Amino acid sequence: MTDSFHLPKISLEGLEKIIIAYSHVPDNPTLDILARLTKMGSAAISRNNKFLMDIGIIAGAADKTVTPLGQKLGHALEYAMGADAQAYWREAISSNSALMALMTTEHLQSGMSEKDLSAHILDVSVHKKHAHTQTGARCLIDILLESGLLVQDKDKLTAAPAKSTEQPEPAVQDHGQIFGLQAEDSAPDTKDSTPQAALTGGHLAGQTTMHPELPSIMLNLTLPETEDLTVYEKIFRALRENLLGLPPLP
To answer: Domain locations in the chain?
Structure first.
């Protein structure tokens, strides 16, 4: 638990790409590898590391590595597992006492405008107000909405009431297919850290859920060990286009 927090320096979509990239390289990823996976500059990635450390997604001093929570969140985001992603976001936010204190702000309990909440976030964070931090405040608001800790009612943002364990998880926006390779209804295999691409229970091209009698397949690929990420990209593109029948990526 910490009593302060930094802000992200990027939009939620960009931050999710960084988290997914970290989850793909669990052992001492370099900024160069992360930059290739996200197609971002290394500086843009490193600027967000303090926030990701504050909420327990990555850890380490000079060399940052993804935590078990960060790996689970990355997989949930990549595979569009909305309810799981919401739960992991909530767990990450809950690990920071200052962020949880933010949620108990009296004004937030009764409702605040986005502008007022952004200003309050800047007041209680470690940052001064400028363009980067305003983007970070908006990103944090989006994360709180994704986690279900914050709800929006018209033009007001309000802290969500405590949930009963019997209540279903609210629907959240899915952010899957960020890297463009994903079979519908597929799920990641996190049991083995060996580089693998698992397409589990995916529908073949032309197969629909209207015909459950048609076969499903499970394909496990052991990928070659290489630092040349273009090798993986070519394999994934070929699977996407030839096996899943999806259109080529731009």
So the answer is: 12-159, 182-250
